[in-house]
Amino acid sequence: NVSQDHAVTMFDAAKNIVRAKRRNVEANGSSDANRSLVPGPLERRLPPGEDIEIHFQSRNVKEENGAVIVTFQSQVDGFKGKALSTEDSLKRSAAIRLISRIVKEPFFNELRTKQQLGYIVSSFYESGYTTRQAAYFASNPAAVPHSTSIDSLSMYVLSKKVKPTDIANRIDEFLVGFRDRLVDQSEEDLDKHASALARLLTKPTRKLNSEASSHMSKIRRFSPELFSSENENNAVNSMPWDSAQILARAVRGLKKEDIISVWDSLVVNSESAKITSLVYGAKYPLEPGLQGKPLTTMEGLLKKRSTLKPYGSCETSQ
Length: 318
Prior knowledge:
This protein is of the alpha+beta class. 47% of the residues lie in helices and 15% in strands. It has a five-stranded mixed sheet with strand order 1-5-2-4-3. α2 packs across α5 and α4 (164-184) packs antiparallel against α9. 32% of the residues are buried.
């Protein structure tokens, strides 16, 4: 496996590439060196308290199944690393990961086994990130590259037995009732879930290419912001090499009240940020009353996206 020394060597090589790129940009007379260092995507912040619904007819005319994905986006920046994030971000990211594990089996049992609602029923944690883009640097010349982690919880059902709108209602009903299950969970059961997740987070990587890919993804994402800061000499030590271990310890330290508090703000409260995507199959096609509405076409979807603010610390008009 890749040792820490090897990882640092890889990081140093990437650092030299970043420095060379910056020198090349500056030598060509451009003061906007950051514009060429944008490392990734731009994601939008879902509006708190607004339930966005997207309705689309499947392009496969022979596909009978419909599908529903309900996603809750955390409004608190996700955890990046000890030197890059707050304790609040760490605790919340750990809680959302644990919640996704706790809810998985009851969600499947209720909608798949008991209600026999769909062919596929699943729930999962999603981790994404967003970065400052060229347009941001155009209006903020002194800004440095920066990325923001995004935590989300998603529920997914594929079915031809029930209309997608009814599936979405069933998911909502489950989520409203699940809070009581969390309240009734014993500390012993919560500790078992936390221990299992912590072990999974710190499970040794078995393949060299997987470990190298993990290190390189961190180098690619975090080196621009670290080496653009005033503490460039400390960049290697600030890299989140041990983020999984830190998350595992945070997961083990969560209490029931922490989990319920995050569940409420993420899913239940009026300020939660939710988007529901409904895809209609041949058996239950897109209903006439929905056809032609703004979020039933790609044009309407892109227009809606353009009205949403960028997520994180790049919240300017872009």
